[in-house]
Prior knowledge:
The protein has about 160 residues and is an all-alpha fold. Helix content is about 70%, strand content about 0%.
Amino acid sequence: DALALLDERVVIHVDRDYRDVSNATTLLFRLERAGVDVGDRWARHARFALEREGDHASAFADLHYALALAASGRLAHAARFVASMSDAAGDGFDACVRREVGVPLARAVVDLFSGRAAEAARTFDRLRDETLRIGGSHAQRRIVRWMHDAARAHAALAEAHP
Length: 162
């Protein structure tokens, strides 16, 4: 059972490393998209994300923290998290990546979960060739494509049934 593996093998490490948070949030998103009831697991990951607010060392990690907050329904926290990403942009290569790719992707995540799927889809579409700049492996960045697919599906549904 995927939820048992998540709880017993992945989540026990989540507080130690952003990669564990990334893996757990990616798995939760995939399970939920497949129709699995993930219960209150998003809330647990949102708590981890809240502990990282203001610590914007990685656009890749920040994207997953924004996902955890938005998917848990903590949309105001997610919006503040994205704003703090923008405020932390600064100078240099990492700052440029955060500003040009990380912040817009995280904002698209918030849009997706806030009922603005069409806006999210446009942002994901615009940045589809830029996601490699946030880091992570090709497989790890696949979450962006899955969120893009979800945004397009929600936008099409909203357009078909206004």
